[in-house]
Amino acid sequence: MILTFYALLMLARLALTSYPVHQKPLGHGAPRYPIPGDTPWRNCVDPKDHLFQIDHAGMDPNPCMVESLCNINVTGTLTKNITNATISFNVAPHFNDGRVGEILGIDDFYSWVDVYQNHTRTRHLQPGSALMNQSILLLGGWVPVANYSAVFNVTTPEGTLFRLCAEWEMKLRGTDTTRPESESPFDE
Predict the structure, then answer these.
(1) Phi and psi (nearest 5°) for 43?
(2) Choosing a second label site near 175 at 20 to 30 A (CA), which of 49, 98, 129, 130?
(3) Bridge-partner residues for 104, per DSSP?
(4) pLDDT higher than 70, residue 179
(5) Cis ω on the peptide bond leading into residue 63 (within 30° of 0)?
(6) d(CA 186, CA 188)
């Protein structure tokens, strides 16, 4: 049971990973509320009322792949003091054979993401510039190769910090193709 929980946690954290430049978008057309930078993430709704206005998002390496370490950095401006934040997520792997999974969760935002202001890691955010960073080790066997869609919503008592959506294709490191349809990580 504990192993299953960690597998789901790693898969959910995977949702903050990659959208390589050479991959075609899985969605329909250009995103309505894009985020500057080279990632699959976009604002799900008009971000004008979000407490964190995102200036840029980046990943290294891009694309992130299974069996690699992925670093994600987001810069922007906070508009209010924030001490508590909660992240809720819905991550859905879409497998080649038509199966669709669903991973739902709610957690303390600061246990997922490191936030820096004035070059200092902090949990007590103040209005002004901020950098948010997450490093994810994508372990083979824990993260299935598939197409993914995800929604991440970060809320505070003061309002919505941000709400992000994405669609991307997760591949194995060192390959240009996804796992063959006949091979599923769940068949073993």
Answers:
(1) -75, 130
(2) 98
(3) 90
(4) no
(5) yes
(6) 6
Q: Which residues contact 28 (CB under 8 A, 6 or more apart)?
A: none
Question: Can you list the positions of beta strands (E) in 33-145?
Answer: 42-43, 52-60, 68-78, 86-94, 103-108, 114-117, 120-121, 128-138
pLDDT at 29: 52
Residue 110 corresponds to which tokens in the numbers above? Answer: 């600061």
How big is the CA angle at 153 (ends 169 and 133), to the nearest 5 degrees? 70
Helices (H), the chain: 2-14
Mean pLDDT, the chain, rounded, equals 77
pLDDT digits (tens, 9 = 90+) for 114-170: 999 999 999 999 999 999 998 888 776 677 788 888 899 999 999 999 999 988 887
Q: And the tokens for 77?
A: 């401006």
Q: Phi and psi dihedrals of 110, rounded to 5? A: -70, -15
Question: For residue 35, what are its two tokens?
Answer: 């985020």
The region that residue 72 occupies, defined by phi over 0 for left and psi between -120 and 50 for alpha, beta otherwise, is beta
Cα separation, 122 vs 104, in Å, equals: 27
- Cα–Cα dist 14/140, whole Å: 12
